[in-house]
Amino acid sequence: MTGGVFYLSGMCTDDIIYDPLPLYHTAGGMLGVGQSLLYGCSAVIRVKFSASKYWADACKYGATAGQYIGEICRYLLSAPEKPEDKNHKIRIMFGNGLRPTIWEDFQKRFAIPKICEFYGSTEGNTNIINMDGRPGAVGFVSVLIPSVYPVALLKIDEETREIVRDANGMCIRCQPGEAGEFIGKIVKNDPVRDFHGYADEKATAKKIVRDVFVKGDYAFLSGDILVMDHEGYLYFKDRTGDTFRWKGENVATSEVENVISKVANDTDIVVYGVEIPGAEGRAGMAAILDENNSLDLNRLYAVVMKSLPSYARPLFVRIVKELEKTGTYKLKKVKLQEAGFNPNTIEDKLYFIDNKQKTYVPLDNELYAKIISGEARV
């Protein structure tokens, strides 16, 4: 991954990389400092990201390359304009999660010649990069010689997000413009194409799909829904049901559901991500079946604060009298996700986390407006 970012982004050994990301994170440690270890680039490491100091630091240390995750770009764009915004020497910015809606505004305001958005995971084989700066794209795959890098988008059911198969039991490739799950062909003993899995065998099994295009082949499931255009550029659309991304971290819905079940007496619970205007990723929301109105919101707050990292704590709670299930008794979440958290269109009781009152408070129209406008911090 480190080498791919170095060569495909156009960095050189003389570059000075400004790295404000935590080094325990793959982006900051492997893809940032890793450039110094492998290629001799200089790295400027900031203990903690600061939107007000990012460009001042870049000028001070003569940085020529800068790192980001999507949240960082939004914070920088929201900060007051300063002379340092354009007086730096940064020629390349690389990272992941830059929202397409702010891409061009960000690039123009800070006069960045090249932005290299990448997509991937440390364990997966679906790593790609947008090496020529196409706004909004997370990567590129050749449509002329696809066998060079055997990845694909598989057609999925819009409701269940599960992979669809044809009459012969094979998976179906998506057409340009059609959203599907991103997969990578697994080739054993190939350092680029193999997938070694996790310590948990069940978790490993969930990341593999078999009999993809021919009997006996298998591939790594990224868990992400992407769209490819006619030229081969790929655009991130969403995550499949089991995870979503918030504050630059992946949130496992099953982990959050297990924590909430301790408070909700093992009732039906669906955790999913909802979009908030201006925020990167999706904020956590829990739909909880509470037929007897017995859920203790104060205890729920205390348990999620104690048991979950900050990025995984649900910001919103929706109390429901019924949760729809699929024909195979799986809880449906797509409609819930699409409904969001608008009290004007949702009849169920809605709540929002309040760290001052240490509980979940009713989400009314006034509070909703504050969240949408950015007045209420998320």
- Amount of helix: 10-25%
* Main sheet: strand order: 2-1-3-4-5-6
Give me the Rg, rounded: 22 Å
CATH superfamily of the largest domain: ANL, C-terminal domain
CATH class of the largest domain: Alpha Beta
Number of domains: 3
Ends distance: 32 Å
User: What is the number of helical segments per DSSP (H or I, 4+ residues)?
Assistant: 11
Tell me how many strands there are: 19
Biggest sheet architecture: 6 strands, mixed
Structural class: alpha/beta
Mean pLDDT: 92
Instruction: Give the DSSP E fraction (strand runs of 2 or more residues).
Output: 25-35%
Can you tell me the CATH topology of the largest domain?
GMP Synthetase, Chain A, domain 3
Low-pLDDT residue intervals, each spanning 5 or more residues: none
Overall shape: globular
Helices and strands, in order, run as HEHEHEHHEHEEEEEHEEEEEHEEHEHEEH
> Can you name the CATH architecture of the largest domain?
2-Layer Sandwich
Protein name: long-chain-fatty-acid--CoA ligase
Domain AMP-dependent synthetase/ligase: 13-165
GO molecular function, one term: long-chain fatty acid-CoA ligase activity
GO cellular component, one term: plasma membrane
